[in-house]
Amino acid sequence: MYSSLVREMAGRKDLSRRSFVAGAGVAAGVAAVAATGVASAAEKAGSSAADASAAGGAKAGSTAGASAAGTPSFMTPPKPVDESKITQTYESDVVIIGTGLSGMCLADRLTELGVDFRIFSAGTMHVQRGGSFHGIDTTTQAKYGITDYTPETMGRRIKQEIMCGTYYVDQAKWYTWANRCPEAMNWLIAKAEGYGMKVVLERGYNDEDHLWEFTPASHNFVMTDESLTTANGGIFSQTVDFGAFAGASLVNDMYQHEIEAGGTTIDWRTKAEYLEREDGGAGRVSSVVAQLLDDKGQGTGEYVRYVGRKAIVMATGDFSADHEMMAAYCPWVVERGMLADTGVNYDATFQFGSLMPGDGQKMGLWVGAAWQKAPNACLIDLLDGPYHKEIGNVDTINLNRDGKRFMNEDVVCSYSAIADLQQPGQEVFYVWPEEYADAYEVWDHFGATEPCPDDGVQYPATQTFTSDQMRQAWAASAEKGTYVKGSTVEEVLKALGDIDVPTALETIERYNQYCADGYDPEFQKDPSLLTPIDSPSGTYYGYKITTGPSQLLGSTGGLRTSVKMEVLDADDKPIEGLYNIGVMTGDMFATTYNFCVCGHDLSACCTTFPYLLAQDLADMK
Fold first, then answer.
1. pTM for this predicted structure
2. Cα gap 341→296, rounded to integer Å
3. Of 41, 264, 536, 607, which has the fewest beta carbons less than 10 angstroms from its beta carbon?
């Protein structure tokens, strides 16, 4: 249900789409172009990338082929443009590259603090994906009567997240987020409520094994009253009731309004090309050269320079659209065919299989930044089929192509996706009886929220289902051909195809005995989740998924990053003047982005860290 809904919505016109003409104005002072030493610094920083690419080879869809020496093409910086092509120079205290949620958050907070800044983007609008913001000790949680979810009480949760990252992650970032999240999130909540948004909580996660359970903490921003759009002067491009999917668009609409009301013009269709570092490539990063784009997103050959007296902050998103970078840093994704050749669309919101081309990561490598120490995590999930927990796997029997069970089915969606990737053909088969609908009184799907204390309404109401509604939904999916339906298990298995039917029948027979016994000797699944594949009504369903690009939402991390969002070199020393935020933040996530603390990226990397960085920049002399 989730998968089809998200993909249907992703095909709609981009959320919050508004175009603006870049402002003009000349600031005094031009930073010296310092190309000397950039190539050698980039080569040193990216040696691991070169080795990885040489071993794995450049993949289809890469920005360019690897050089003859085996160095990935993304490690080769462009030549500085002729000064005659740089038609404008803008100087400010801070320069922000990118108008995703993190860049816009930083810009809004700088506006409040009275810091002089410029912000520009290669796209024509702000972009964002989703809307789940994890909150700790917030005013919204207090309204719901949740007062025991605080930095002091969630130490176990943070330790578990560090463990999920196999201790590759930077623990200081996780604890900084936990300790400072209340301040940043309460700032955002108060701001949003001031614009008439409702802030609601996604339902918590109940785990029978007490491993993944958590308190309702993922905050959604919703706006369902059409009059609010008019009342707020057209600030918001549309109303949103599905906050987990699109609430971030409301937040960015709000940020944009405040940025522009504060007197800053966002420069759209302006693509960052390379950074400029002083002292022959050994000093501070003082400026960035960007190219103006035409209405089709193509370079015009006209360039501008942005000089940052205090900082250049990159907030350019992930690198999953550059297949060569993915081959170097996330080879398992490439090897399993999870990348799609979607091209580069700087206005992309929800797009599966690949997203952004790693512009900021490349620019950082070219001036000597080091790659993060942790294995890059990708955002993958498998929220599809008859699952009953908000971010849970389908916990009826899961079979592979050989007709065998391969895991304890009770797990969150990110880890079930990883398990599925290890199966023959990356295929998973679900089989269940119509009576499976009665196994749970409530079926929660992605984005299900608790009723809002203000009005008692659940936003969106369509994400919590009764047993009868699930029966209807399964029947409708069978009518559409999404699911298969039959009067016997064998009939369903044969209709699914590509599965060893005799072995699958034997596996299901054993599983039914486990259900009767109340004990699973194979995978120790909790007895309360053992529902037999047996239908007194003679109605069975089946569904097959092949894990691929439609389960990939993007990559995380890239450049080595300090807890203060400084970009670091190979000696873990800050490169003066250079910062990055958002999903670019290095060493925050590792191996797998697990979704277990729903909304930690939007809360930590896109809200708390930019919020704190703004104050640091304001205090900087």
1. 0.90
2. 19
3. 536
Tokens 């964002």 -> residue = 128
β-strand partners of 304 = 88, 290
Q: Model confidence over 330-364: pLDDT tens digits?
A: 999 999 999 999 889 999 988 899 999 999 999 99
DSSP E strands, 400-473 = 427-433, 443-444, 464-465
Could you tell me where the beta strands, DSSP code E, fall in 5-146? 86-97, 117-120, 133-134
DSSP structural state of residue 604: I
pLDDT tens-digit map of 494-529? 999 999 999 999 999 999 999 999 999 999 999 999
Angle at 74 between CA 289 and CA 65, to 5 degrees: 130
Q: In this structure, are strands 218-222 and 464-465 parallel, antiparallel, or unpaired? A: unpaired
Q: How far apart are CA 383 and CA 560, in angstroms?
A: 31
Backbone torsions φ then ψ of 238, nearest 5 degrees: -165, 160
Tokens in use for 66? 């690897």
Task: Look at the block and give the residue holding tokens 């009301």.
Answer: 261
- Find tokens 């930083």 and name the residue: 106
Contact call for residues 131 and 249 (beta carbons, < 8 A)? yes
DSSP per residue, 7-27: HHHHTSSPTT----PPP----
Helix axes 171-194, 155-164, angle to 10 degrees: 120
DSSP label at residue 285: E
175, 436 contact by CB (below 8 A):
no
Distance CA 73, CA 307 (A): 27
Among 86, 90, 2, 76, CA closest to 39? 76
Residue 89 bridge partners (DSSP): 305
Burial tier of 46 (Cβ tally within 10 Å: 0-12, 13-18, 19+) = buried
Would you call 22 exposed, middle or buried from its count of C-beta atoms within 10 A (0-12, 13-18, 19+)? middle
Q: How far is CA 407 from the centre of its chain?
A: 26
**Rounded Cα distance, 292 and 85, in Å:** 11
